[in-house]
Amino acid sequence: MAAAVTRFLMRRPKAVFINSARLNYDKALDFSRLSRLTDLTLNEVDSIADANEIAEKVIACQAEIVITKEMEVPLSAMERFPPTVKLMCEAGTGYNNIPIDYARSRGVDVVNIPTYSTESVAHMVVTYIMNFSAAIFQQAKMLHEGNHSNFEVFQHPIYEITGKKLGLIGGSGTIGTAVADVALPLGMKVLISSRSGRLPRGHKYENDPRVQVVPMDELLSTCDFVSINCPLNNETRHSIGSREIRLMKPTAFLINTARGAIINEKELIQCMKEKVIAGAGLDTQEVEPPPPQSELWSLDNVFLTPHIGWRRLETRQRLVDMTADNVESYIQGQLQNVVN
Predict the structure, then answer these.
(1) What backbone torsions phi and psi does residue 69 show, to the nearest 5 degrees?
(2) What is the pLDDT of residues 114-123, one digit of tens each?
């Protein structure tokens, strides 16, 4: 067995990371392990939109392994991939950017990294909660505009978060659970939406009296903060729209660190214009970045961040290292994290 593993590790398949700058935009990451495992080409761009250009990058190095990060790989691009391609690695959690069915039909394995940013994204949710509770965003905006009147007569409602209700949509998953891990010691009451009325058997909060499992409508109508932590799929796409937002309390805040398309942005914008809720914090948007004409940019109760939940330095390096884990498991003939 040891000899077989050694033979596997002596093989250095050709690999191309099509948009490595999406991860390594500051050139602070270490790809040395991935380079030892493979004959690695790093294409230092953030993204490529042209299908022919994507295909040419793969053809040029006759890659066996193709790595991408949150970049759409059109079917027309993959149809032109050479027969050398045997593995596609999504350097992240979501893999709806890859034509999974076609990959399967070609015998190409697709792998992802489901847990690299759990704590980082959970901390992003709590960062938004902390900022909203102390009106930090609003105060910073006033100062940036040269408005110092807050120092004379304070003008924003601010709250303690102890005792406040935090609703987690998709809260029984890994990231939702990590959010609860932080929120509960802060004294927050955690509500998780579930159609079944219970958490999965064996869930760490299954019998915890501090965590309440409720129907979605009850969560929306009673919580002070609502965090979206579910995956994007056909069922969840645009599942948060005008009806759901109008169930929320006028003092409540909506936070999305999952996928932008879970929210119907057109309906959200209308609700925010009407000030149906106090604010929305969107680390993800349906199109990233939103188009220049999007009203999201100008609404004073919508706060945008450029999908930074996964961008902390340690998180990105972990992602590179776990991509190397996936590649090494492939080389050894022991695939892990296969999604197709």
Answers:
(1) -130, 110
(2) 889 999 999 9
